[in-house]
Design goal:
Length: 202
């Protein structure tokens, strides 16, 4: 996403900066199969931001949210980054209560005016992809844990093989009642008689 003119002027001023990171993931509700968007940011308080014309609520994670530096570059290489989150109720629900596997994920950067503490412009997207790994560690008795999400950039979709798009299991994941490709795995080995009688062996 390109830098807005307001943010470009903010960068050019070189008077000190306040920048925060926003993480947005869209896990699946295991019971209803509905998408359950949830956002976290490095600020201390819960706050709503305007992103792509929509208002999103981000939970204030503060220092409990740590995001790798976003690697730059052009091309179709798959980029991987890690997002580490302390386990607060919202994180526990998103990762343990819902299914984060392959959940769409975005990371935005937002600059704040030093005097007013208001955003200089709308958050700027710096990463788009999906959750590639979301291990769920179990803490020792009385211990604290940290969840680390491994995100893969959207270029990873180009590495998916055709069966992942057209297999029966993939179609059912989108719609449990979709039976269009129910027999696709066996259709190639079935013998079909064309224009002739089949002789049954007793």
């Amino acid at each position: 996403m390109s830098v807005s003119s307001a943010e470009a002027a903010y960068n050019a001023a070189r008077e000190g900066q306040i920048r925060e990171t926003l993480v947005w993931i869209v896990p699946r509700n295991r019971s209803t199969d509905a998408q359950e968007p949830v956002g976290f940011w490095t600020g201390e308080d819960h706050r709503s931001f305007e992103v792509d014309g929509q208002t999103r609520l981000y939970f204030g994670a503060g220092a409990a949210l740590d995001v790798d530096d976003i690697p730059g570059g052009v091309g179709l290489d798959v980029r991987y980054i890690s997002v580490r989150l302390g386990v607060v109720p919202e994180v526990d629900q998103a990762i343990r209560g819902y299914d984060p596997k392959l959940a769409p994920a975005e990371i935005h950067s937002v600059a704040f005016d030093l005097a007013t503490r208001n955003p200089v412009s709308d958050p700027r997207r710096v990463f788009r992809g999906a959750v590639n790994e979301a291990p769920m560690p179990t803490p020792a008795a009385g211990g604290a844990i940290e969840i680390e999400l491994r995100l893969a950039s959207s270029a990873r979709a180009l590495t998916r093989t055709l069966p992942l798009y057209r297999s029966d299991s993939e179609m059912r994941r989108r719609n449990p009642n979709d039976r269009f490709r129910e027999h696709v795995s066996t259709v190639g080995i079935r013998q079909v008689a064309w224009g002739e009688d089949r002789v049954k062996n007793d």
